[in-house]
Amino acid sequence: MKNVLKFSKYALMSLITVLIFSCDGEDGQDGIDGNDGQTGVQGQAGTDGEDGQDGNANVNTYVFDLSSKSGASIPNDLPQLTQEVVDNDLIIGYLQNGTGSGTYYPIPASVWPNGTGGFYDIAVDIAVGKYWVHFYQVGTQTLMSVSGVELGKLKIVVAESTSTTIGKTGKESIREELKSAGVDINDYYAVMDYFGLEY
Description:
Distance between the termini: 120 Å
Radius of gyration: 43 Å
Strand order of the largest sheet: 1-8-3-4
Order of helices and strands: HEEHEEEEEEHH
């Protein structure tokens, strides 16, 4: 009897195990995919923007306020005037005819009217790190002192030489480029416009 009970017990456990593992249900069928929505109407293309003005990375302007300066020779420190720049690049100076004036004269200049009724000859010395402006009595070599009220801004334009033509320096090449473009180097506004610089 003990054996029958043991056998019945193992038989029952085996039957329960078989039933548990054989009770796997069937997977259901996948549902049908829905329809894609309609593609929207293409929007109107935007208008193209205007191209910006071409810049000139090879031209720089340096501005000095001389309205508080006086004397016959006025030095201006300009570290950008390296030996290479002095030797190769075009350096043009313009002097404002009194504070607030819209008139700029190219310097050096013979007979510069200072805006207060006086006249001067102006010479320029350019060296490494310095730009001097010298004032002379018209037609002489006699230095003549000016007062700050007679002066406005000094603007120095440095045009970098990118190449040279045989027998010509970079400075001469840039001068010829300006001349070929119909730009009068003595006309401050024409030069600033040509290089795309602010007045």
